[in-house]
């Protein structure tokens, strides 16, 4: 799991991150899951917790190590 967070509770930053997730989500899945077959679970999503927005990149793999996937 890799996490990238923005400034505390700023709507403008949340909208930018939401747009970024929309652009990355499909390519992230296609590259890691479909093309490389690296992960059983491959996800990219936006999460808000305690007014801090984060982009989560999640990969669960039995084929490669976490160091390789990072």
Task: Describe this protein with a few key phrases.
single chain, 70 residues, alpha+beta, three-stranded antiparallel beta sheet, 2 helices, 3 strands, 41% helix, elongated
Fold topology:
Elements: E1 2-5, H1 11-35, E2 41-49, E3 52-60, H2 66-69
Antiparallel strand pairs: 1-3, 2-3
Question: How would you describe this structure to a colleague?
Answer:
With about 70 residues, this protein is α+β, with helices and mostly antiparallel strands. It contains 2 helices and 3 strands. It has a 3-stranded antiparallel sheet.
Instruction: Output the radius of gyration.
Output: 13 Å
Sum up the overall morphology in one term: elongated
Distance between the termini: 9 Å
Q: Which sequence of strands runs across the widest sheet?
A: 1-3-2
Strand content: 25-35%
Subunit organisation of the chains? single chain
Number-wise, the strands total: 3
**Helicity, in percent?**
40-55%
**Low-pLDDT ranges:** none
Biggest beta sheet summary: 3 strands, antiparallel
Mean pLDDT: 83
Q: How do the helices and strands follow one another from N- to C-terminus?
A: EHEEH
Q: Count of DSSP helices?
A: 2
Structural class: alpha+beta
Summarize the structure.
Helices cover 41% and strands 31% of the residues.
């Amino acid at each position: 799991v890799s996490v990238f967070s923005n400034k505390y509770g700023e709507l403008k930053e949340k909208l930018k991150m939401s747009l970024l997730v929309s652009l990355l989500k499909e390519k992230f899945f296609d590259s890691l899951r479909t093309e490389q077959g690296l992960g059983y679970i491959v996800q990219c999503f936006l999460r808000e917790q305690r007014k801090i927005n984060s982009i989560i990149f999640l990969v669960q793999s039995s084929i490669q190590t976490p160091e390789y996937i990072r």
